Amino acid sequence: MTTLLEISDLKVSVRTTEILRGISVTVEAGETVGLVGESGSGKSTTARAALKLFPDQAATSGAVVVGGTDLLTCPPAEVQDVRANHAAMIFQAPRTALNPVRRIGDSATERLVQVHGVRKNVARGKLVELFGEVGLRDPERLLRLYPHQLSGGMLQRVVIAAALSIDPRLLLADEATSALDVTTQAEVLALLRRLRAERDLGVLFITHDLHLAAAYCDRVYVMKDGLIVDHQPGQTIFENPVNEYTRALAAAVPKLPDREEVPT
Ligand SMILES: Nc1ncnc2c1ncn2[C@@H]1O[C@H](COP(=O)(O)OP(=O)(O)OP(=O)(O)O)[C@@H](O)[C@H]1O
């Protein structure tokens, strides 16, 4: 087993506000690990910690080891190496991840060109290949388009392809499918699952949806108020929530009214 991310007793606070209060999370190669919790529980802060992206003036303690490097104690050059080569993040809103006035090809190749010093035409060649891998047709034409000319689902595939361009081992998916309609969400989830298997990626999958995490993830951590309050395999967390909060989350799933109850 290769541990791609090992967060140990991580505490993050800004002035007097404790955002993370001592959490431990691991992600192995080849597994999808869910991070579930209500808004403000600290999910995004945890994922961003894997790139050493903390709020301004944050005080931190503990360890965040990515690919063998502890980001909290290593020199800045090693943090840059982790960001450039080991871990990539995809967000909820692909439209905000891409500059609306730049062509897709320029935005999607930016990291390869600017961080890795890859020649522009080589980077475009790699993107064409990756667009095929993520199921985008007519890749040469797509590179010339602007974000508003693509659907949300297509844009999220573009963002995933751009994230893969650095061949990361760890993918941090922060509500990456939440803004998509259900059919597109299912397609993107299937894509992430296939990419994980083919590339032996570790995926940290953030969602507020316990149902989705239980169905999709190998293991699930439940967060509340900056703490991990439950941690189980996806298969069991929904049926046997050990923590009262997880039980409440499971029970909070809206129940559809019976047909007779719906006024006509
Ligand atoms: N720069 C900051 N300064 C102070 N508090 C912050 C800062 N950034 C985040 N927080 C607080 O930390 C807590 C955790 O935020 P975080 O974004 O990690 O939660 P989350 O679970 O990802 O929520 P959401 O689902 O809404 O994105 C929140 O209460 C938030 O207000």
UniProtKB/TrEMBL annotation:
Q: Which domain of life is it from?
A: Bacteria
Topology relative to the membrane, per the entry? Peripheral membrane protein
What is the predominant subcellular site recorded for this chain?
membrane
Output the Gene Ontology cellular-component terms: plasma membrane
ABC transporter domain span: 5-250
Recall the GO molecular function terms of this protein's record. ATP binding; ATP hydrolysis activity
Entry's localization field: Cell membrane
Task: Supply the alphabetized keyword list.
Answer: ATP-binding, Cell inner membrane, Cell membrane, Membrane, Nucleotide-binding, Translocase, Transport
The cross-references to InterPro entries, in alphabetical order and at most eight, read: AAA+_ATPase, ABC_Ni/Peptide_Import, ABC_transporter-like_ATP-bd, ABC_transporter-like_CS, P-loop_NTPase
- Protein family per UniProt: Belongs to the ABC transporter superfamily.
Protein name in UniProt: ABC-type dipeptide/oligopeptide/nickel transport system ATPase component
